[in-house]
Task: inverse folding
């Protein structure tokens, strides 16, 4: 078994946006889970003091959407569809307007980064507190674009972490735990 495990290698794409959105959906009172408490607001002061919605996003920091030269759509199927629509146009309405014409790895990353940034902004607008952890290893470090995405997604600069080792990852989660305080789950 250990021999088989040691032969395993990472493969595939990273869709930070989709992971973020599923995390947010679990907190939302309006989504598929619909069990979340109402969002806190300044006009709802009693709720604001008792309900804190916290999302922790851990990722390798690199959005990726694989090309596929054998597909007439130019890419692997992904949560945002294909690079091109079935009629051959590049405009993808699932992506931010400035990033709809995706045709290669670089433009797909820019589009997914923009989509992720938009989701972070929207979640923070309804008082979801976001912590981000970039897990970066020497053989696959998070580049500047990934670090910028995670820094900007976090609710504040002290809610952004880079973990280069498993010890760093544990330390980040402990620091998050300490900053959250006593956790109480509600329905």
Result:
């Amino acid at each position: 078994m250990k021999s088989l495990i040691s032969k395993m290698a990472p493969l595939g794409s990273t869709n930070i946006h989709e992971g973020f959105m599923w995390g947010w959906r679990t907190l939302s009172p309006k989504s598929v889970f619909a069990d979340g408490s109402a969002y806190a607001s300044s006009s709802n002061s009693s709720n604001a003091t008792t309900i804190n919605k916290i999302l922790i996003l851990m990722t390798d920091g690199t959005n990726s959407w694989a090309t596929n030269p054998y597909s007439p759509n130019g890419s692997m199927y992904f949560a945002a569809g294909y690079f091109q629509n079935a009629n051959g146009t590049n405009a993808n309405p699932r992506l931010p307007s400035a990033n709809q014409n995706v045709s290669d790895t670089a433009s797909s990353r820019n589009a997914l980064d923009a989509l992720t940034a938009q989701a972070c902004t929207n979640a923070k607008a309804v008082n979801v507190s976001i912590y981000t952890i970039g897990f970066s290893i020497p053989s696959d470090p998070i580049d500047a674009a990934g670090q910028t995405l995670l820094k900007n997604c976090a609710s504040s600069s002290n809610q952004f972490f880079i973990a280069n080792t498993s010890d760093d990852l544990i330390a980040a989660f402990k620091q998050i735990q300490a900053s959250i305080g006593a956790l109480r789950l509600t329905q």
The beta strands are 53-59, 128-135, 160-163. The radius of gyration is 19 Å.
